[in-house]
Amino acid sequence: MSEPAQSAQTARLLELARGPEPDDRPPAGAVLFEVAWEVCNQVGGIYQVLKSKAGAFVDRWRDRYCVVGPYVEAKAAIEFEPTRATGWLGRVVSTLRDEGLGVHHGRWLVPGNPRALLLEHVLPGDRLGEVKYRLWKDHGIELPAQDWWMDGAASFGDAVRRLLESICHFWCGAGAQASGPGGPVADRRVVAHFHEWLGGLALPMVRRQRLPVACAFTTHATLLGRYIASAEESFYDRLPWMDQAAEAAKYNVRTQHAMERACAHGSHAFTTVSAVTAEECTHLLGRTPDVVTPNGLNIRQYYAAHQMQTWHAEYKERIHQFVMGHFFPSYSFDLDKTLYLFTSGRFEPKNKGFDLCLEAMARVNAELRALREQGETTPTIVFFVITQRAARSINPLILEKRGVLNELRQVCQRITESLGEKLFRHGAAGERIHLDDQVDDYWRLRYKRTQFALRTHRLPMVCTHMMEDDANDPVLNHIRVLGLLNRAEDPVKVVYHPEFINPVSPLWGIEYEQFIRGCHMGVFPSLYEPWGYTPLECMACGVPAISSDLAGFGRYARENMMGHEELGLSVLRRRGRSFHDAAADLASTLVRYCRSPRRERIALRNAVERASWQFDWARLAPAYHQAHAVAVQRLDAELSGA
Predict the structure, then answer these.
(1) Do 88 and 150 fall within a single domain?
(2) What is the pLDDT of residues 340-368, one digit of tens each?
(3) Count helices and strands in the chain by DSSP H and E runs
(4) Distance, C-alpha 393 to centroid of its chain
(5) 60 and 185, same domain (yes or no)
(6) Edge-to-edge, what's the strand order for the sheet holding 115-120?
(7) Domain boundary among 443, 459, 475
(8) Residues 229, 337 share a domain
């Protein structure tokens, strides 16, 4: 597709996303049920979408908003507060329980505390077989035998169908009171918003049964698009000419693809998260989205105001502790002239741009070395690759040196405490002293022994963990090919951390958000990214970030944020460009940032935090409201026979 055609399509989709200014109140007599596999059940990025926007939707809908998900006992024990359902919804829950469907009513323990219904959806073999037969007979969706994910999608879909059937009966059907909360029965509406094929299979079932439910469906990424993009070059350039059925067969995802198409075509309002993903939907799912619903964050949760620089200094010090334990046993460098950059995300090295990051870092390393040889003072760069990968444990040598560093800190604290008291006494007496004479021999020797124990003659390790398959790990192999081996003379150091950062890790003891705040820049030059929360999380924490024009977030920012470079968000051009051209541009951007004065970097941090408010749900939630209005309007047209 040509650049003008892309821009025209994007403009149309973004105009749809903005839509008319919505009323602050929800439609009179409407109830909204948001259905997703990741309600109280964190699996991927959709969890963050639902969790972060819950507060904005509770503010709008109050108790007429309810999230629906699967009941997973271990996760519900942490995220779900059971409560007794009352009124018409209590009758729904009671009726379904009498019919054998376990329904748990309560509150999701996230900001906004939305009402939640969790369904015990797992079915015995014969009942599951009936559901799968109906899916094949009514919708042409053939489910394989004994596939855990697809069986779960089918049984959850049937449970949600039964739930919505009962809701229609008690809210706006024969079981409802003639009047009461929500107004007259004739004016009441049920709106159901489904997310992804795992949580959306009830949608075609509901439409087949002709239930009076206004159905909206959001795909956060086409499953087929994700497979193709990770395996083939120039995905978006080839997209208009792809045979979606043949590609689904090629990647053995025919069933999931059929589910996704059924949800897209069955919905009254079809949405996706970005203009770039809307292109996929048009060509792979056969329907252009009605509305683009960009993902936001609850920026208020991240807002630090005057504390931003204080928190940056505090958490940067925690990263300093890691760096000293990891690198200083081999050699040292000036931490005050060190910048921390990182990339993170699920383990899709090509889609997430890990390969491009490493290629760019190799170029940055060469350029900074050349500048040092010319006499210019340049910072040291420590680049973290944070992802989740099969590993046996943290490398014991790294844990050993971290333990020795902690011991050295304790020794220094004891010496300082003892010396401080002696200095005070001698100072009060007006005496002149020699500091070496004031340190006890025991602590002087222990200090030197700990110093010696910390030293090693090997290079700092690139990977922090013992990998399950070190020899075949694509990230490690790419690092080896590029020669990013953490030599003392290299300005760029690489740390591959195949485990998401969490406060229980002995290497960190901080949250991922705190790690972000301690860093200087996030680098996310994705090749395939329907939206991309990682750069948005950076912005919310006041950290500059790099995205790409193949990421939904990057493309949205490029087309909606004037002067985004000055606001701390760089958007790398990857579409229609070679890997090495993109790597050269990324390296140039990184070198320019690394050579900028500290004053400019601080100003950029302030600018990026201010710009992050453009992605607060208060600003982006109206796109969802527009989708719900479209769904209700089309349902009303159906019911009236128009």
Answers:
(1) yes
(2) 999 999 899 999 999 999 999 999 999 99
(3) 26, 17
(4) 25
(5) yes
(6) 80-82, 102-108, 115-120, 65-70, 30-35, 189-195, 213-219, 269-272, 291-292
(7) 459
(8) no
Tell me the residue range of the domain where 403 lies.
396-459
Q: What is the number of structural domains in the chain? A: 3
Between 43 and 208, name the one with better pLDDT: 208
For residue 286, being part of any structural domain is answered with yes
Look at residue 179 in the predicted model and tell me its pLDDT: 43
Q: What is the CATH number of the domain that holds 56?
A: 3.40.50.2000
Determine if residue 90 is left, alpha or beta; phi over 0 gives left, psi from -120 to 50 gives alpha, anything else beta: alpha
d(CA 22, CA 626): 7
Is residue 243 domain-resident?
yes
Does one domain contain both 153 and 67?
yes
More confident residue, 64 or 405: 64
- 339 burial via Cβ count (<10 Å: 0-12, 13-18, 19+): middle
Residue 508 to residues 319, 321, 502, 552, Cα–Cα distance (Å): 8, 9, 7, 31
CA distances for 576 relative to 140, 354, 582, angstroms: 37, 19, 10
d(CA 143, CA 258): 10
Whether the CB-CB separation of 203 and 263 falls below 8 Å is answered with yes
pLDDT value of position 9: 46
Virtual torsion, Cα 174, 179, 184, 186, nearest 10 deg? 10
pLDDT tens digit sequence for 264-296: 999 999 999 999 999 999 999 999 999 999 999
Domain-ending residue, one of 420, 436, 459 = 459
Residue 443 neighbours by CB under 8 Å, 6+ apart? 411, 414, 415, 418
Reading the block at residue 381, the tokens are: 């760069």
Structure tokens at 212: 């009076």
pTM of the model: 0.86
- Residue 330 forms part of a structural domain: yes
* Residues 258, 129 within the same domain: yes
Q: Which residues contact 248 (CB under 8 A, 6 or more apart)?
A: 224, 254, 257, 258
Question: Three-state secondary structure along 582-634?
Answer: HHHHHHHHHHHHHCCCHHHHHHHHHHHHHHHHHHEHHHHHHHHHHHHHHHHHH
Same-domain check for residues 584 and 443: no
CA 345/CA 229 separation, integer angstroms: 16
SS3 state at 227 = helix
Does residue 162 sit within a domain? Answer: yes
Q: Is the pLDDT of residue 116 over 70?
A: yes
Give me the pLDDT at residue 483, please. 95
**Model confidence at 178: pLDDT above 50:** no
CA 184 from chain centre, in angstroms, equals 42
The C-alpha atoms of residue 326 and residue 486 are separated, in whole angstroms, by: 11
Report the alpha-carbon distance of residue 367 to residue 639 in Å, rounded.
67
For residue 309, the model assigns a pLDDT of: 83
Which has the closest alpha carbon to 201: 146, 245, 138? 138
Of 348, 336, 342, 347, nearest in space to 361 by CA: 342
Taking all residues of the chain, what is their mean pLDDT, rounded to a whole number?
A: 89
Instruction: Check whether 622 has a pLDDT greater than 50.
Output: yes
Asked if 493 and 383 touch (Cβ cutoff 8 Å), the reply is: yes
The answer to whether residue 437 scores a pLDDT higher than 70 is no
Confidence bin at 45 (pLDDT 50/70/90): confident
Are residues 437 and 509 both part of a single domain?
A: no
387, 412: one domain: no
pLDDT at position 94: 96
